[in-house]
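Bug: token stream looks shifted between consecutive jobs. Job 1:
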Amino acid sequence: MKWDDILITDWIYQNNIKNEQGLALDFHDHAFLFDIYEDQSPKLICYKAAQVGFTTMALLKSMWLAKTKGMDIIYTMPTADDIKTIVGGKSNRLITQNPILQEYVKDKDSIEQKQVGDNLIYFRGTWTERVALSVSSDLNIHDEEDRSKQQTVQQYASRLQHSKYKWEWHFSNPSVEGNGVSRYWSVSDQKHWFIKCSGCDKEQFMGWPDSIHIEKRCFVCKFCGKELSRDERRIGRWVKKYRNREYSGYWISLLMAPWITAEEIIKYYETKSIEYFTNFVLGLPYVGEGNQVTPDIIYRNCTPEINSQDRVVIGCDSGLKKHYVLGNKDGIFYAGIASDWSEIDSLLKKYERSIAVIDALPDLTEPRRLRERYPGRVFLCHYARDRKTYQIIRWGKREEAGNVNVDRNRGLQMVIDDFAEKKVPLQGTQDDWAEYASHWDTLYKIVEVDTLGVPQFKWESSSGLDHFCHATLYWRVGMDKFKNDGGKIFTGEPDMFPTASPILVGKDGDTILHQAINKSRLVLPERETDNDWRS
């Protein structure tokens, strides 16, 4: 597809465009971006993994469109700080490294807007509604949409009303179903990147875990099992799943990136939460394990193996009674209830190499005394969502070194996922863990819309007896300090690679493959069959 007389990719090559580091842009490994560069659809959406070059592509393409198509453009990121980072760290450096872009942007050049030829690119955040009401636009580009304020993103559409173009681009690492870019995916043509195996000559798109041989640590053909070379992964074509859809849609995962090895993908799975892996590696929305935590999910982790009780982490939920769990890289070996803080103190003395993560509330006094008595070993845990970096666990630094912030609901989901995948061995029998499992059995999941208009799942307790659940989350937070020691929770490989996955049919008749690790939790595009959807 051509833009006037020249392809955008030709424009990049002919003008020797360089990236923000000053190196010539070599899109040899970014073949999957070519068609997106040249796509002239009025509405575009992309599910994408992290660090695939999409933002650099969007910035270059926006400058080219402003110059050659005479478009005024609004480029949004979640916050004003994000705008400073992308303009200072990417856009300005792209311009500095490229004389042709310096010619394009030679008049008004600031953090909030750049004049390209006779037109303007406005860089805006989404945290206040006011920013969406000040300028007009021909193209709105929403970068990291899933981390943006949803109501403000929607208000930006009003800025297109005067335009003859009315273009919209939506792209992000997806978060959960129903939020951000996932709202547009179902009305897009859902393009997948198909490659061809030189062994069996069959086309396929890369998927987890079918396209990776775990033992050999390599990418393989889904059909014949032959190891796929870097070039085989690089050379491919975009194929529409549906014709005549409103949005031009693309799905980019790290499995498609030739510079990423199978070893790295497996490492991400082993060391990151399943939510992180789904969003930032697979580039897909996260679903999560079930709406309830049945005793079976807990009991499947019971083991007769004796725990070493070395490098112990104590997770403690404070209150009138102190519910605590003891565990390490080999799993959890004890769950108990203390009547006063002296018992927790005794545990810290008994396990000399231990650390403790304790609920910062409601007791404001004794946990802080323990932190002062055992500096560097006792940490107070605060429940707080991270709206900016989207981390689940954030350790305090300097004066906050004895604190740790945790996203309550995503943290509980992470622990539940670990149990579901049998990655938290429990020393003993089901009878030993019956009371412990009863606390998890009270949990159920609901969905609420937060102040930013983003649907958020929330774990509630039917009875309030969920103290061991929170104690376990605090233990899991403490384990984050020792993750380099390995252990099953970070490197375990349970029965997690099914050879077949159930097919579910959505409300609109679309077929969706729930292909997941252990139980179905990752919403993936449907897998190809002999009667696949390729045109």
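Job 2, same session, no restart:
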Amino acid sequence: MQRRDFLKTMGVATGASLLPFLKYLPAEAAGRDDTLVVVVGNGINSLDLHRQGTNRPSYQVSINIYDRLARFGVKTLEDGTLAYDSTKIEPEVAESWTMSDDGKSITFKISPKAKFWDGTPVTAHDVKWSFDRAVSLGGFPAVQMKAGSMSAPEQFVVVDDMTFRVDLPAPSKLALPDLAVPVPLIINSKVAKQNASESDPWATEYLHKTPAGSGAYKIVRWDPGQQFVYERNDAWALGPQPGLQRVIVREVPSAANRRALIERGDADLYMDVPAKDAKELRDGGKVKVDGAPIDNCLHVLGLNVAHKPFDNLKVRQAIAFALPYEEILSAAAYGRGKAMFGGSEATPSSTEWPQPFPYKRDTDKAQALLAEAGFADGFETTLSYNLGLAAWQEPTALLIQEALGHIGIKVTLDKIPGANWRPAALVEKRLPMHLENFGGWLNYPDYYFFWAYQKGHLFNSSNYENPEIEALVDETLHMAVEDPKYAENVKRMIAIAFNDVPRIPLYQPYLDAAMQKNVEGYAAWFHRQLDCRSITKA
């Protein structure tokens, strides 16, 4: 498409709303074999994942511009879609590693091929400084490291310049995979220290806008709220050389505009496509739609037990029997989700997670439970949802409002802007009834329970506390799957979740991306962000 045609088409189709896009991105960029144009709904707010307040979209930056000791492999699903493989861990900066006989330390040999952008070698000193930083700055990164039994700088040991060791308090199945998630990125410590200060010893202000990595791509431009641009690091030698010279990621808030751009060929890739658009784009056949169920992830209705009457078990169970699950799956997921309701077992017989909960819509049962709880006439409450996720949360909220009205619960909807959601729902945990989503980065059920069912943890937005869950998670989190007690403990956790329902699962969502037919190598990742390294254009 010629630029004059692009301007004419966009002017007719969507008007002035796309003019900022034209200002920063020539239309011809989407047609270049060496350039990928990506459209997303939410942009990044930092180039430093360790920084307090860094948002989820920013995680992708750390994936593409920083390296880690190890990375997950990729597998091909039955329908040909590529997805990460939680069972396969491959070398990245570490060319090899060995586990001690007692399982309490992992020793890594640093690859001589690992070089920072300034040409200096990556050393064990850089790894230690970076890991010390991750556990010391607090917030989400520190808790993520703790999930892998890494919480103190003393655990990270420089054996020599090219040998690094992690010491663990006890053997843990999560330690090695936790080193392949976005958080334990490796920073050029020499550059960072040169830009640190007494008041900012970890160079958070510098690294916020000026990364110092070794990854396959570099950031060469960032216009907050508009776009950022990756350029390939041609010296990167820790894997196959990426096929794209340049990746332009444009923030386009309107889902309708993102869809228009991908359908007209003026964008190459559209990340995190709403379910309705994914279905229609797939059915239309003009572009490819790749997607897979997100491992260890659920869309849920959260009931905050710190707010009455949700502290009442029978009230929570009544709501679980009142929800219009089938309608939600149809109206919000458009079939792009796995049902997590109507399970046949009240007591789980397997450790599969997620698995369907034993609830389906039964208004009579819901009313009876509500009466037993002392609320035969119902009550009034508020249902909060995230406007940033309105594509699935708004229709879901409306259906829940209507369904609960049938059992006497009067629901007022509370729409919260996306920028305000995390503090209200996850940090302050002050929303009585709310829609929420969490997906565990490490594909184990006990890891999900660690984040979403243990008291005080970030994604336990329901303020749920159960001493038995606390003990089970603490005992099981680092336990080997082969341990006979592992399955027993996990099934007991799931049984408690079945019964107590502080989080009522609605469905397991898909992560869908739409792309032009000449785009190859896109893979769905647990972190739900873009990994540019494997993508090519014909």
